[in-house]
Amino acid sequence: xxxxxxxxxxxxxxxxxxxxxxxxxxxxxxxxxxxxxxxxxxxxxxxxxxxxxxxxxxxxxxxxxxxxxxxxxxxxxxxxxxxxxxxxxxxxxxxx
Length: 96
What we know:
By secondary structure, the chain is mainly alpha-helical. It has helices spanning 4-17, 23-39, 43-56, 58-63, 65-77, 83-92.
């Protein structure tokens, strides 16, 4: 809670060193990274983390509440065309 920089540092270490966790664990990790990036005001990194979650576990990202909330917030904050966000929103079935 409210330790977003610490969460990002911890996750960076885990990702950089590699992990043997399954996609069902790595996908939510990237979603949570997206939440931390968004809380720190870094929309581009939040979008990158969400894209990575979709690349790793697309079925989970489509229905996971954290993914859906990130998508909702990113699309509501973004006022101009962003091809990456538009493509991801279409995959998620979110009107954009």
